[in-house]
Design a protein that fits this description.
The complex is a heterodimer of chains A (271) and B (92). Chain A is an alpha+beta fold. Among the domains of chain A are: 79-182 and 260-269, Thrombin, subunit H, CATH 2.40.10.340; 187-255, Thrombin, subunit H. Helices cover 32% and strands 30% of the residues of chain A. A 6-stranded antiparallel barrel of chain A has the order 1-2-5-4-3-12. In chain A, β3 (156-159) and β4 form a beta hairpin. Chain B is mainly alpha-helical and 92 residues long. Chain B has one domain (4-86). Chain B has helices at 4-22, 25-38, 44-56, 63-66, 68-86. Classes of the chains: A alpha+beta (271), B mainly alpha (92).
């Protein structure tokens, strides 16, 4: 009884109310999203045009700082990624040593043929600096400092070793954005070098692509795929082949023969 | 005169803005999410999302695919705001 009659005087601490209510945050978010939605349909390049002049000096500063301190652009790669890259590069060196003799002969023949057809004379190319690359960007995108060069939408990006990498998708002032063929969802028609068999590669990100081909498709590890219609430039190299006896298809995973994480200069070919 | 909260906020904003251009995207994302959780009404995370999607994004045919990080940050912003509004975290 005495317990029931006892008064319980707790000092209830009330949580201080924030100045800004949740409904206000909700309204601001809705306004921002609606603004983005409108700009997406009516002015799709507006934000890129506004942001790129501000971004260019900051990207350039970063590149200069990395160069000055002798740090590779892919500074933030994990130790495991570097180890894997080291192993794959050693394998690649061994393969290249074997291929070197064959390719030198083929190059000579190719150069002779090109001179005959005068293909290279019709191509207009510009050397541009890469100021942002994958690992910094969430998608497989290269940001290019085009300076006073003329670059337009759809132009082809060619990296070291004459490897075709992607196309220009946006140009604003002195900045251009190129989408790599390895960007998730990008489909590219390719040809298996030497055989003429065609396939459609699908970008899966991180400089990788994949393709599902019939079991009879004549592909093996290390084979090169070229892009038809671009002087048959190399696009990707086979890195892995997955097949099972029960399946009538095999999954081929490919990657660019050059590292897109440390690429510093590319050529832009006018289309 | 700026008080310490405002100074802290300006510092975080500057670092976050620079990280968009200087650091990998995931570093910026982690930094932005932490700032949204710790700081009050961190609407700047939406601006960071817009910058990341605009500068590094792929132009897509659909709105959601064109601004995934912005929409993600908007969601985190609302969730964090609602959480902070309804719960109190104290040290024991």
């Amino acid at each position: 009884m005495s317990l029931l009659s006892t008064k319980m005087n707790f000092h209830i601490k009330s949580k201080p109310k924030p100045n800004i209510s949740f409904s206000r945050a909700w309204k601001i978010t809705l306004v921002v999203c609606f603004g983005l939605f409108l700009s997406f349909y009516f002015f799709p390049t507006l934000f890129f045009q506004v942001a790129s002049p501000v971004a260019r000096p900051l990207w350039s500063l970063r590149e200069r700082a990395l160069t000055a301190f002798g740090v590779a652009p892919d500074f933030f790669s994990s130790r495991r990624a570097l180890l894997n890259e080291n192993i794959s590069l050693k394998q690649r060196v061994r393969e290249l040593e074997l291929e070197a003799e064959d390719s030198s002969m083929l190059n000579t023949q190719g150069a002779l043929l090109l001179n005959q057809f005068e293909v290279s004379k019709n191509e207009h190319k510009t050397l541009v600096r890469v100021i942002s690359r994958p690992s910094q960007s969430p998608y497989d995108i290269l940001v290019l400092d085009i300076g006073n060069g003329t670059v337009s939408l759809g132009d082809m990006i060619v990296g070291p070793g004459d490897v075709v990498l992607g196309n220009v998708i946006a140009v604003s002032g002195k900045i251009a954005k190129a989408k790599l063929f390895s960007s998730p969802g990008v489909e590219t028609e390719v040809e298996l070098a030497g055989s003429g068999a065609t396939a459609i590669l699908k970008g899966i990100g991180g400089g990788n692509m994949s393709v599902l081909v019939p079991k009879s498709f004549p592909v093996k590890m290390g084979d090169m795929f070229v892009r038809p219609g671009s002087r048959d430039r190399i696009l990707a190299q086979v890195g892995a082949i997955e097949e099972s006896e029960a399946d009538s298809f095999k999954k081929v995973t490919l990657s660019f023969p050059v590292s897109i994480f440390s690429i510093q200069w590319v050529f832009v070919y006018a289309q | 005169m700026l008080n310490s909260t405002n100074k802290k906020r300006i510092l975080v904003d500057t670092l976050l803005l620079l990280s968009v251009f200087w650091f990998p995207w995931w570093v910026t994302c982690v930094f932005a999410v932490l700032a949204t959780i710790v700081l009050e009404f961190f609407v700047e995370s939406l601006i960071v999302g817009i910058l990341l999607d605009t500068l590094y994004g792929i132009s897509n045919t659909s709105f959601i695919k064109s601004f995934p990080l912005t929409l993600l940050f908007a969601l985190i912003f609302l969730i964090s705001f609602w959480t902070k509004d309804h719960f109190t975290f104290t040290n024991r």
